Structures are given as structure tokens and as C-alpha cells.
Amino acid sequence: MSRLILLYCCLLIALPAWAAEIIFSSTAGNPAIQGFVNELQQRRPHDQVSFVALNKLPAPSQLPDTNRLILLDRPALDWRLTDPAGPPTLGMRISRIQARDLPATLPAQLSLLWSDPSPQRQMRLARLLLPAAKRAGLLFDADSAFLLEEYRQAATEQDMRLVTRRWPDTRDSRPLLYLLSHSDLLLGINDTSLFNSLTVKNLLLTSYTHQRPVIGPSASFVQAGSLASTYSDQSDWLDSLEDILNQSPDRWPKYSYPSHFKVTSNPQVARSLAIELPSNESLAQKLVEGEQP
Which CATH fold topology does 119-231+262-291 show? Predict the structure, then answer.
């Protein structure tokens, strides 16, 4: 009998603290979203995981508190903001700039997982690759100006000075040329008005001509010719989401960057700039170690 009791206790410990209905929602679904939902369901068989189109959901306050809402676009987030009540909710795939006009006070049960690379992570990556760098250049515009203080703090933590220039007209290269002349590297910010398919050629070729590496702003820019960046792929998003779901909702962070990430780099660019490039895996490991308490 004692063995049966011990076995029963072990099974209780092994069970999740709670099981919930996890609802993903956005204005429209697609195969990529459904694949993400299916993968989470496989990882969490004790939960009921589904996708429900935004127009099929009732008001947030009409949903059970035991639900967990995962919102995948800005319209879904706006819908959640219409009701201060509602179940614990996590907004994903929202960039800092997309969220810049959010109300100062958010619903108590709402958390946001930013889609941007962490500024602190990007600056630590720059320090690992460029140990002698003293100044980091950053272009910004009216949309991204509110991020300057966070990037300045991230630079200070790496003993660098942030040199900034407003870039209101991407056809005018003078702000870019100024930064390249007054900094040791260019830090790409997740501002699609500045870093996009129309500006990538000028940004990267001009930086290359001045022998200045570009860090970030995304994996696609690294493929195009920037030196390196942190990024999160689908497995990282799932791992980061699970880290949050495994906590009691009252412990969910109000705002956070993905806790899981990778590093991508461009060996050809590194060789042309005479930069010693460690493996992406070792860079990511050093960044992870730097974030551990």
C-alpha cells in the first residue's frame, strides 16, 4: 500500500500545476500560424490549444479566466485593449514601434512579448565582435526616437558611447555619412522606415566603403551584408512562449523580449573587415551566459 501511495504522489508531482485552454487569435489564420499552434499542442498535450479568428471571439470579459489568450497581430491587441477585464493575455509579433501608441495603462492581465531583437543583446554582440569599439552609431526617425534612451543605456553598459543622427529622408545620405565618420560601427534598429529593401543597398555598401560593420537589425540584413545579429526563429518563439506559459499568470512579465534566441553572422563580411568571427553557437552561448543572474 505504501508503494501505491508513493507512486500516486509522484504522479501528482509530475502533472502540470494547471491545465488551460490556450487560444491563439489574429485577424486571419494561415498555414504558418496553424503550424505554430500545432507545434505548441504537441509540446503541451495537457492543454487544449487552438486558433480562433478574431471576429469569432466574444468580448474579452466574456471569456473564462482559465483561458490563456495569445494574440498575434495589432488588431487583436487593439481588441483586447477595449476591455479592462478578461483572461491572461500575451501579445506576440508586436514590435516596439508598432506598440508606441499604446495607452500608458494596459489591462492588468495583458503582457507583451516584443518581436524586436533586444537592444542589450545586440550591443553585447557588438562588444564580443568588436572589443576595441568605443562609439556605436544609430540612425533614427520620428517613429523610433522614443527608443534612443534604451539603446543609449545598452551602449553605456558595454562602455560605448551612442552617436545618433535623425534620418528624416532616406534619400539624403548625410546623416549616414556623419555616423560612419564618427563611430566604430553602425547599429541597425528595427525601424522598417529606415532599414528596408529600398535602403539596404545604400546602407550596406556605404558602410562597407567606410570599413564600418553593421550589427543587425535582422537575420535578413545579415544575409544582405551586415556583420551579425541576434534573432529568434520559430523554435525560439515556442521555447520563449513556453517559459511564460509555465509560470502562473501573475508572474508573467509586463514586457519582455524573447528569452530564447540565436546568432547569425556573415563570414564574408567579417573577412573583408578583418574581423575574427567565432561560431554563431559560441556567440549565442556567451550572450546567454551574460544574461544569467
Answer: Rossmann fold (3.40.50)
